[in-house]
Fold this sequence. Notes:
Immunoglobulin-like, 3-stranded antiparallel β-sheet, alpha+beta, about 240 residues
Amino acid sequence: MTLPPLNLSLSLSPPSFHPTITFHLYQPPIIPPSCDLAARLSIKLPDEIFLDPDELDDKFAGSAISSYTLTKITRQGQQKGKTKIDIERPSFDTFHNQTDYVILNLNVDPRGTTPQEIEHANLNESINNETIVEIPLHGRYLRPSVKGERTIIFPDTQNSEIRGEWICKANTDSVTSSPFTIVRTEPINIILPTGKHSHQPFVELMTPLVIWSGWSWIVYKIFRLRNRMKNNVDTNHLEKKNI
């Protein structure tokens, strides 16, 4: 018996620089008795947001996520293997076009959903038929804009997508090499803060002032400490001489 396509919906935490996307996976209405159900997800993220691997380890511990990997693919879809996340760099659109995409591959065990995740489940759905997967994200530094924010559509048709399927664990080996099916779901709008164009002259003026003020304070404290140590040495030397 062939399992139906993966059905899911998305929800999002309040707008911030550290959004969390929640995946609501709805189990098939009919599952063969011999099938130990699991799900595979492959999530291509836009460059404006990124994953912190250390945070993923903490978030996924004890959740429905049985395992995950981070890989990289080219714009043409060629696999480049496992990747490390550069959490410091700005978004690619600040200096050149994006050529690679980070892929988050998830293996989901529906029985692994924790009581805390169940509390966030849609009350109109049967808890037994819904699996909750939360993905913590971070926004990258973006170009300033007029409104001071940018809206990222996820998934879109070009820079991000969700692929996945239901599988029976006993058949995992036979389907590992098969391509995932694109999951069609209602996209969400991820609002990320940016600087405002109107603030840029003020920032350009104040940034060097703050930096030089900080350095001046450090130099001042160093000289104060040096003079204090010198005075202490002179005082001790004078006291010994008087004795």
